[in-house]
């Protein structure tokens, strides 16, 4: 009354009559991602559609975990008496550590929760593992796959197996209900790109003599 203007409503109470196209597209993609991830989580629990395959999926999960890769690489470094092999293993160790740090930072920044149908029984977790984006297993699988293909001389069947392993690790993350589809896709892309960083920063006796002196 008296011609005074009504107090504006808080922003969160206002109805957006003209939402942006980008906002609609992102919301739709998120909805599709969540729907597809839930439908594909066929091993998320013992009572799921493919619950009997859950133990096998968990073995695949361990094969892409950081701890076995770190321990195996360190053991190889300690046992190797070949300078070329030590150089490759030292750079693999550098790649694995860089991967762990980068994934932890991104997870801490994005803070996307894991799918609601996920059963938290993962092999050795740390604080940031409560977050979902990106998939560290997928990132590591793509990184290790490129590394192995570039630095190990393998027969064609073994090269195919390495690529299949990386793909299966990524798919298993969604099937176990650990991650959404976009977590895995971004993880694979991140791991693929991360290898290029490792190659650019390649450690050698000339570029890092102090490190190689330790071995």
Automatic annotation (TrEMBL):
Q: How does this protein sit in the membrane?
A: Multi-pass membrane protein
Q: What class of enzyme is it?
A: hydrolase
Record the organism: Anhinga rufa
Entry annotated with the keyword Flavoprotein: no
Q: Name one Pfam family in it.
A: PAP2
Protein name per its UniProtKB record? Polyisoprenoid diphosphate/phosphate phosphohydrolase PLPP6
- The coding gene here is Plpp6
Q: In which family does this protein belong, per the annotation?
A: Belongs to the PA-phosphatase related phosphoesterase family.
The Phosphatidic acid phosphatase type 2/haloperoxidase domain sits at 88-199
One GO molecular function term of this record is: sphingosine-1-phosphate phosphatase activity
What Enzyme Commission number does this protein have? Answer: 3.6.1.68
């Amino acid at each position: 009354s008296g011609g005074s203007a009504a107090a504006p409503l808080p922003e969160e109470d206002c109805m957006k009559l003209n939402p942006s196209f980008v906002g609609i597209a992102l919301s739709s993609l998120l909805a599709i991602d969540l729907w597809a991830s839930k439908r594909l989580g066929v091993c998320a629990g013992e009572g799921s559609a493919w619950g009997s395959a859950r133990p096998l999926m968990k073995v695949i999960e361990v094969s892409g975990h950081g701890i076995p890769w770190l321990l195996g690489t360190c053991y190889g470094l300690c046992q190797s008496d070949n300078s070329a092999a030590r150089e490759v293993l030292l750079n693999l160790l550098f790649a694995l550590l860089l991967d762990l740090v980068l994934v932890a930072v991104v997870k801490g920044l994005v803070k996307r929760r894991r799918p609601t149908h996920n059963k938290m029984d993962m092999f050795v977790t740390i604080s940031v593992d409560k977050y979902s984006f990106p998939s560290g297993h997928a990132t590591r699988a793509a990184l290790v796959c490129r590394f192995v293909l570039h630095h190990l001389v393998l027969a064609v069947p073994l090269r195919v197996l390495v690529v299949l392993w990386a793909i299966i690790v990524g798919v298993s993350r969604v099937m176990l209900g650990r991650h959404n589809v976009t977590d895995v896709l971004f993880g694979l892309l991140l791991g693929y790109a991360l290898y290029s960083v490792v190659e650019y920063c390649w450690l050698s006796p000339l570029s890092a003599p102090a490190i190689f002196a330790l071995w």
